[in-house]
C-alpha cells in the first residue's frame, strides 16, 4: 500500500493535542490512540502533548482496522471481482 497522505489541520504549529488521544478514520473499522514516541516537554495537567508535526502513520498513528476507502488499492481490487 502507498504511503498515507495526511492533511495538516488548521491549527498552528504550536497547537497541541494530548498524547493518547483517541483517533478515528471515517473509512476505518476501529479507533486507535495517538502514541507518543518522545516528549516535547510540553505538559498540560501532567499529560504529554503532541503537535501537528508529530504524525507518522504506523509509528504514532496505528492502524484503524479494515479500510474501506475507495482510494485503497485493496478495496479497488475487490470491487473488480
Main attributes of the structure:
81 residues; mainly beta; three-stranded antiparallel sheet; two-stranded antiparallel ribbon; 17% strand; elongated
Structural features, described:
This protein is mostly beta strands. It has one domain (16-80). Helix content is 10%, strand content 17%. It has one helix and five strands; from the N terminus they run βββββα. The chain has a three-stranded antiparallel sheet, with no helix packed on it. It has a two-stranded antiparallel ribbon with strand order 2-3. The longest helix is centred in the last third of the chain and has 8 residues, at 73-80. The model has no long low-confidence stretch (mean pLDDT 78).
What distance separates the N and C termini? 19 Å
Q: Give the overall pLDDT as a whole number.
A: 78
The secondary-structure class comes to: mainly beta
Please tell me what the overall shape is.
elongated
Helix content: under 10%
Number of domains: 1
Number of helices: 1
Order of secondary-structure elements? EEEEEH
Main sheet, how many strands, which sense, barrel?
A: 3 strands, antiparallel
Total beta strands: 5
Query: How much is the radius of gyration in Å?
Result: 15 Å
The main sheet orders its strands as 1-5-4
Percent of residues in β-strands: 15-25%
* Unreliable sequence segments: none
List the helices and strands and how they pair.
Blueprint: E1 16-18, E2 22-23, E3 32-33, E4 43-44, E5 47-51, H1 73-80
Antiparallel strand pairs: 1-5, 2-3, 4-5
Amino acid at each position: 500500500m502507498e504511503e498515507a497522505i495526511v492533511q495538516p489541520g488548521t491549527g498552528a504549529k504550536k497547537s497541541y493535542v494530548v498524547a493518547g488521544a483517541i483517533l478515528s478514520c471515517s473509512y476505518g473499522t476501529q479507533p486507535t490512540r495517538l502514541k507518543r514516541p518522545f516528549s516535547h516537554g510540553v505538559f498540560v495537567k501532567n499529560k504529554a502533548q503532541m503537535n501537528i508535526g508529530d504524525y507518522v502513520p504506523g509509528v504514532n498513528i496505528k492502524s484503524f482496522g479494515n479500510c474501506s476507502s475507495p482510494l485503497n488499492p485493496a478495496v479497488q481490487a475487490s470491487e473488480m471481482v
